[in-house]
Protein 1
Amino acid sequence: MRRTVFPHKLLPWLLLAPQLAITLVFFYWPAAQAFRQSVMKEDPFGLSSAFVGLANFRKVLSDPNYLNAVQVTAVFSLLVAVSALGIALFLAVKAETIIRGKGFYRTLLIWPYAVAPAVAGMLWLFMFNPSFGTLAWPLRQLGIDWNPLLQGGDAMALVVAAATWKQISYNVLFFIAGLQAIPRSLLEASAIDGASRRHAFWTIVFPLLAPTTFFLLVVNTVYALFDTFGIIHAVTGGGPGKSTETLVYKVYNDGFVNLIMGDSAAQSVILMVIVIALTAFQFRFIERRVHYA
Amino acid sequence: MTKTGLWAVCLAAAPFAAEAQTEISWWHAMTGANAEVVDKIASDFNASQSDYVITPVFKGTYPEALNAGIAAFRAGQAPDILQVFDVGTGVMMGAQGAIKPVAELLTENGATFDKSQYLPGIVAYYSNPAGEMLSFPYNSSSPILYYNKDIFQKAGLDVDNPPKTWDEVWAAARQIKSSGAATCGYTSTWLTWIHTENFAAWNDTPWGTNENGLSGIPELKIDSDIYVRHFQALADLAKEGVFVYGGRTSEAKQNFTSGECGILTESSGGLGDIVKAGINYGIGQLPYDAGADGAPQNTIPGGASLWVMGGKSDETYRGVAAFFTYLSQTDVQQYLHEQSGYLPVTMAAYEASKASGFYEANPAREVPITQMMGKAPTENSKGVRAPNLPQIRDILNEEFETMLAGEQDAATALKAAVERGNAAIREAAGG
């Protein structure tokens, strides 16, 4: 690769300055604050504070509610990632086979991505609220005891559906790009050899899509872990009981509702470690294999 | 005029202008019609004098406004007046040095503060154990019973006599369901506020030790027999589909306004939405437990109060005192009460509303006041307080939800709630 050499010493720094400033102010500074707070015990107003070492971490990690949140997060992320990838792949493959109005279908498929998480949550809530939901009523008529306000499983299904719906568009976009990058000649050759469409998909298309799928798997997991706060906040608020309280929601709840800053900060630091690990994993194993068209 | 001359005038006038009007910020959490009341009161106050300007700023929901205030205080940018909801009272009281007690502020600034002019239940709730009023009660409400008269008629219930005790409520609710008059007999908003905090006061039974936390750090007592009986009844009704759970805050109001449920217990502040829904409703007192001695006692206020933040200039405090004096005026209180559905804070305003015939035209509007004022409060009915009441409410809600889903009985739920709640209170008090 050709090395680009800047004749100017100061200019590159100057050009980088805005981005660096943003990163410093919006990432490094808050991160440092979180680290500091995670080893302190403080009252909500910050009138008195004491250094407590790793006591907050010990407390958080031995709290059964935290372990519950880990479990909830694992179930939630897995369900969201798997269903968002599966449905998106199906839709992308189907959208590619359409001849007329391809652009129209694609636009419709990508549309939900523009909806804010909290708004998406409200939409699903309005459809499935047991007392005024437009779709909850027919469910009840079918004899299904649908009640996400009290049944943990129903609540989980609802937030998973909302989070999945919101993420499908993003995945479709990448899958369509991935599908278009697959050489026509391979598919034509398999057709000449008499392979069925299904066989061609599983032996040619799916393996060739693997880099895209891996990339999306990481992105979807990160999305399910961190970006779904708005949906959970709008739809269930972590309830009923603690059945939809994910790790991120617990950070918010302990810090901003219960005002236990030390615990909340310790949880943020743990989350930070998880994200760093996921990102490292992605760069180490996946980034090298993904081919961006 | 020359340029220099203009500058001279500006420089001379600038400090004068700043001195002439002191700006006072007021962060609040009122929406809809209640936000209009805030703006109207502020602009009327600003027009009534020329020394101070009150600037109301909407800061989101109650918890959001409290958080915004706390974050601003930590950053040294606290507002002058902060509206804090009832459950945040303990949090604010624990923050000595961050706040300026209202009674102290008023007396320091020459405003006479006579406790007897205010409704006793409300003053007690916002006072410290020594009886000093710490915050200014702005909007207070009390839980009451609403019932759908059409559903009562269809179910063959007495339309003019709503149930008075909880047992009567359960019976009426079952009759509503079994007669097919409605799919749901009874629902309630705010289970914690209505069925534990007010349940304790109204039935004169302890919610926690130390006068429910008013005179010290409380230990929860909500697993005693009377609570177990009450919540087991609710759990049984939920199982039969007679009681329908709406959510942790005021969501259940919709189950009532949509005509799904025949009976609702809700804040008196929720009246506006019920009127707007256009259903044929009636109002009754909050039900009490017939087995409790001395019930009904009195209810305790919900709503919010205005806290004055500490470390402000004397000039600002003079302005805040002037504003609170203005706010206590009878006509202002009467306006606030009649417009917003919240309770009047002063006796004079209550008397004025009475004299004007307001309650004859709107009898239901007096129920929350008589409930709160009926009897002198006991140690069980002055209010409840904990350094972390929002968290306690969450813990209780979680246990109630698991109970209503049929996964545990009332005794187990309440025992778990008490254990978890006490642990959380100890943790918060120790910090």
Note: The interface with chain A takes residues 63, 67, 70, 73-74, 91, 94-98, 238, 244-248, 251, 254-255, 258, 260, 388, 390-391, 394, 397-399, 401-402, 404-405, 424, 427-428, 431 of chain B (CB under 8 Å).
Protein 2
Amino acid sequence: MGGMPERANTNVNTAELVDNRERDLLRRVQAGEKEHFYELVKPYERRVYTAALAVLRNEAEAEDAAQEAILKALTHIRQFRAEARFSTWLIQIAVNEALMRRRKAHSEILEPIGERQEEDGNYTPRDFADWREIPSEVLERKEIRQKLAGAVAALAEKYREVFVLRDVQHLSIEETAEALGISRASVKTRLLRARLMLRDLLAPGFGGAWFGRLPFEKGNKPW
Amino acid sequence: MVVNCEHVWREISNYLDKQVDPETRVAMEAHFKECKHCTAVLDGTRNVVQLYGDDRLFELPAGFSQRLQRRLAQQTSSSRYGSARTFWMLTAAAAAALLVGGLTLGNSPVFRQPELRSEHAQPPHHIPPALMVALSTDGKVFHVPGCKYLHKRDGESPQLMTAADALKEGYVPCPRCLRQYLSVRVECPRIHPDSEVARKRGEAPSIAPGL
């Protein structure tokens, strides 16, 4: 009975420790101890990279943009103010860097899904396949991760950006709106579209097509 | 409140984010109990949010961290080198500014000292052109005839000419006997006070008696 509150307290204490460590590192780096900067950004490397990937859809480009964003963060570290979260600030720099590179490149070979969709129109889900709860273990499989990454990469950029910042990076609606320079209403509308489009893309696969060799196929589904 | 499928699809994202008002939430939940299509959409959308929110989904490319650390190290060292270089550049610029400023200030009229020139090099003023002067045989100086500072060879009379001709030939006035014609005042107590009156009259000043 008392296990849960105890665990919750432990989590809070761990979060506090992490926050305190981050604050301490920030103070030191801002004071000129730049050799500690990597310790500061290490927990957010993946998120920065994913944010850049969401915009650029090319791994090499995304890596370069993500690293450039981190270098820029180091250069401008004194401009960071504690009222924002450091991770959000870092991700915003990465999004800006990636957007800037994309504007320069103008490279859209295939028309992405949803590009021609009117933002204020209603979206009708196409597929009503039954896609009930799935075990998170499926993410251990590399091909499933590739399918998921491919699906999000296929979205039109305006939906992809909002979806990645909100559902992958866990930014709030306000933070997403600020990072992309759009309204909160646009964030909500684009997020709805992105989620429903991804569901349409993934439901047939998760509904059975991708799991022909899974051990829980043929009546052995664990759910 | 009753909601239809289209209303549910429009609000399904807000429903998952707990951003719908309580009345709409109750209405949507009632709808899900009766509509298997909308329930399938809800389950699928919830799965999308859960799957993509998992940290394992997007992996960093192999070697990303090492490459990042290398670039950070390069930037840190180059900024240090840049700081040192900036320091020396600023120091050099400050030294140059001091030098130029010092030279400018030193050359300004406020601090300029009178040039150290020979008394003999002073240009004469208002010397009567017709004034007969005696030329020194030792140096290019002309004197009032009889000046004790007139150098002449023993037994020879000094060469005489007008002051105008002497000046043309490059002679300069004696700073003692012709001091009143020099721009720089030369102390010469041996000049008789009456010489000023004589100068005004265009005559050669007289040498003080006894000199």
Note: The CA atoms of residues 18 and 140 of chain B lie 112 Å apart.
